[in-house]
Amino acid sequence: MAITSSAKKALRASKKKRVFNVRHRDAVSGITKDIKKLVTAGNKSEAMKLLPKAYAELDKAAKTHFIKPNAAARKKSRLSAMIRKIK
Known about the structure:
Elements: H1 5-41, H2 44-63, H3 69-84
């Protein structure tokens, strides 16, 4: 348990940040899983509809420093490449 007042404040701050980090993690992983399921099923049109939502979630995660901007760009690129490969 935190003893000093600054440690108590840091603990409160980290608990607040954790809520947002978990929210971003779940949103990003959920939308990417949905797109991957559609890609394996071969449903290109539905995957294309989810792509803007995935871009938005990745951009939000990068904006709040949950992931780095280049990591968000890489993930967006790989998602679009997966969708492009569907025949």
